Amino acid sequence: MKITLLVVGKTTDIHIENLIQEYQKRLTHYIPFTIQVIPELKNTKALTTDQQKQAEGELILRAITSANDLVLLDEHGKEFRSIEFADYLQKKMSSGRDLVFVVGGPYGFSEAVYQRANGKISLSKMTFSHQMVRLFFVEQTYRAMTILRGEPYHHE
Fold it and tell me: Helix (H, G, I), strand (E, B), or coil: what is residue 100?
């Protein structure tokens, strides 16, 4: 079982990218974890928002398999405290299916991606840049792993 964070577009801020890499490195001590980048669409000025979501959605759906448990990082998803997220991950991991979490493009997900998803989670009621969402997700996943192992990273 492994976890993949599927993202649309590169992380362009080097400081955020360095932090993401640090937490990704830490995470691999607990579970196979990768970040897969779907290239941003080019020439999007000629596309409507729906066309852009549909094109990105097709790329997202091509990047996963029917065996993947697909969870969208979406503003309308379920919110968790860190300990609750750890429990959520443990339950998901016990299924044995590879987990794929997705950060969509600037306009969200296409209807086809929503229909394929096995769930949605939200990291906050606040709005964050897609790059910050990546960092927060990787850090929270690392935190969840330390909680599950009873390690002292998380204080409560």
Answer: strand
Q: DSSP string spanning 109-127?
A: --HHHHHH-SEEEES-SS-
Number of domains in the chain: 1
Asked whether the whole model's pTM tops 0.85, one would answer yes
For residue 36, give its domain range.
3-43+52-148
Amino acid letter, 91: K
CA separation (Å) from 88 to 11, 74, 119, 132? 27, 16, 11, 22
Query: What DSSP element (H or E) covers 8?
Result: strand 3-8
59 inside domain: yes
List pLDDT tens digits, range 110-131: 999 999 999 999 999 998 998 9
Task: Give a yes or no: residue 131 inside a domain.
Answer: yes
Question: Alpha-carbon distance 103 to 109, whole Å?
Answer: 9
